[in-house]
Amino acid sequence: MALPKKFEDRMKELLGEEFEVFQRSYNDKYKTGLRANRLKLTGEDFEQISPCPVKAIPWTTNGFYYDGKNQPAKHPYYHAGLYYIQEPSAMLPAALLPIEAGDKVLDVCAAPGGKSTELAAKLGGTGIMVSNDISNSRAKALLKNIELFGVRNPVIISEDPANLVKYFSGYFDKILVDAPCSGEGMFRKDPAIMKNWEQYGVDYYNNLQKNIILYAADMLKPGGYMVYSTCTFSPEENEGTIRYLLENREGFTVEPIERVEGLGYGRPEWIGSNDEQLKNCIRVWPHKVEGEGHFVVLLRKSPDVEASSCVGYRYGKAKLSEEAIEFLEQLDIDFDPNRFELREERLYYLPEGLPNVKGLRILRLGLYLGDMKKNRFEPSQALANALKMTEYTNVLNLFGDSVDAIKYLKCETLDTSENYMHCKDRDEYDMLIAAKKAGREDMQDCSGVFLETRKKNTWFLVCVDGHPLGWAKCSNNGMKNKYLAGWRWM
User: Fold this and answer.
1) What's CA 406's distance to the chain center, in Å?
2) Which of 223-237, 325-339, 417-431 has the lowest mean pLDDT?
């Protein structure tokens, strides 16, 4: 790979004798990875059902390498939100942020959602997951990934961080700043980034980073943790940005991180510093591990720093239609009636403990449950993805190796008159699924199993091998496919 000469000269100066090994690594193909969705299954469970051979990534418990010749995004499991395609080193920042149940978490520069989806999964549906991206178009991609992953407590915003701090001062327990950067660590994965690097250079991004990290620091609670990360090698954008934070905000320390073999340390001498705590930073080098270049640091804000507070959100009790009430009562979820909110015809379920967010550009506030139209209720795609199969009574479970699973995702009509098994209760359903797994002869051509007998105007949660995909509605004319058209398998 032909690297920019200015970049090569700089790296030769920094790495010395190591440079030749570093340079040779650019002749290797970059590593491809995916990360299992903790909201739906464990890493161990995923290994058992993975649609392609995988190998564990050492710095995560749910990340895996896969051969780039495979296409895991072309499988129904991907559309069920069981995993996210992500560069292996990019999994490290979210893995290092110590999320606890009930935390209020912010991902400042979140699109397209790789790190937000992991942070939300670590929350396990508790607390609040705020994902922000200044680009409205990129934030729309973020929204899809958050909903595909089944996140129940999202707040998705598209704002400049300078505006966020006016609403969230001292609010968050944990913050991730995956800062915009010059992208030197991604040259091997995406050579087009080199043109951007030559156009903007290091200083342009470093100025952005310095502003963003101070705004993030002001939104962190005393005692809270913050991860700062980049995908560049530049000392100015890495150790230099952290030094800038420490000089401009009191009470921050660089926390030590448990080391993984192959990961490097921070290099304070590269910015002319003798601050030993900068050695606690982590550098990921492509010639030392199977991954691209990254920089990651874990910071803590002292509990002794003066705390600030935010004005709370005014929850209103939405008036639900009879059909909406009847539908929601079928869900095995303990809803707080005070957290329903109706905006126009859309019904949402809001996270608990929101601050006042009126005036922000919000793409999603809470879990979008569905539409109430003229006393009718139509459940949303977001709700389907957020459910577990056991949380709804009427289920059509398609088998992953059936043609009908793909047909459903293409929004085609399913002919449910044949090739399906019907059962009257969950025990019988479990017996049929076990028979399929055991290879029983009469199950070999079966496309799926109904968990309830079909009734007129009944909503069915359509699943693939037990994991929700979307909705279908039973009527006099058969089973109507209600998969979201904008997500259609192409």
Assistant:
1) 24
2) 417-431
Nearest-CA neighbor of 342 among 303, 370, 361?
370
**Total-model pTM:** 0.96
> What is the amino acid identity at position 81?
G
Contact yes or no for 356/312 (Cβ under 8 A) = yes
- Report d(CA 82, CA 400) in Å as an integer: 13
Mean pLDDT of 201-225: 97
- Strand partners for 458: 474
Residue 358's CB is within 10 A of a number of other CB atoms, namely: 10
User: Can you give the residue ranges of every domain in the chain?
Assistant: 5-30+86-301, 387-487
Q: Indicate the CATH number of 5-30+86-301 among 3.40.50.620, 3.40.250.10, 1.20.120.530, 3.40.50.150.
A: 3.40.50.150
Q: Which residues are catalytic?
A: 231
* DSSP structural state of residue 460: E
Q: What is the mean pLDDT of the chain?
A: 95
Asked if residue 185 lies in contact with residue 291, where contact means CB atoms within 8 angstroms, the answer is no
Q: What is the pLDDT of residue 316?
A: 83
Amino acid identity for residue 195 in this structure: K
Q: Which residues contact 430 (CB under 8 A, 6 or more apart)?
A: none
Can you give the pLDDT at residue 453?
Answer: 67
- CA proximity to 84, closest of 105, 109, 63: 63
Digit-coded pLDDT (tens) for 275-295: 999 999 999 999 999 999 999
Q: Across 429-477, where does the E strand assignment appear?
A: 448-450, 458-464, 467-475
